[in-house]
Design a protein that fits this description.
Layout (H helix, E strand, L loop, with lengths): L1 E3 L3 H10 L9 E3 L8 E2 L3 E4 L2 H8 L4 E4 L4 H13 L3 E2 L2 E2 L4 E2 L4 E3 L4 E2 L4 E2 L3 E3 L4 E2 L4 E2 L4 E2 L4 E2 L4 E2 L4 E2 L4 E2 L4 E2 L4 E2 L4 E2 L4 E2 L7 E4 L4 E5 L3 H5 L1
Length: 216
Amino acid sequence: MLIVGAKGHAKEILQILEKDYSIEQFVFFDGLSLEQSMFFDRYHVLNCTKQVSEYFLKDRRFVLAVGDPLLRARFTAQFTDLGGELTSVIANSSSIGINKVILCEGLNVMNNVVIYNDTYIGKGTLLNTSCSIHHDAIVGDFCEISPGARVLGKAIVGSFCRLGANSVVLPDVVLGDRVVVGAGAVVTKNLPSGCVAVGVPAKAIKFLETEDEIRN
């Protein structure tokens, strides 16, 4: 299995995967550093797409291990084109409802996440430690829901959104695409696409215009 990323979030993904697989099954990818060849001195790191293509001949599975929504989407498209199969990572400690829950491919569901009945989680989304998605809520593709964040009943979170640690989206609130919500913010009203919102109650303080702004 190829773990896409070899930095901080990859360390946490590895901790979940090591409980279910032998160490011989993992390799990492880091396209930003040609010097890194090993991860934790025990796992090989691939540095180019040629190596990835060769690896996919024996194991097509890859999991996303970067937090940035745009990078998650780019790696998904790139590695799928190379023949890879996007795979989810779901921690055993997570709690997921069994009624009308739709989980799309390529998720990271980290430790102690709660996903309640009648919810939808889009492709490639990261649900980080101890966050919760409540009844009738929708979370779009390639979102990053940070530790402790809560999306309450019937709220809708668009694609490529980033919710900061311990933030709250109140019931029935709708967030557009590419919305960034600051840590600890409480979103009480709808937010338009591309805005950054902070505070209690959350207020939009600016709009993002470039990919670098969305990433940072």
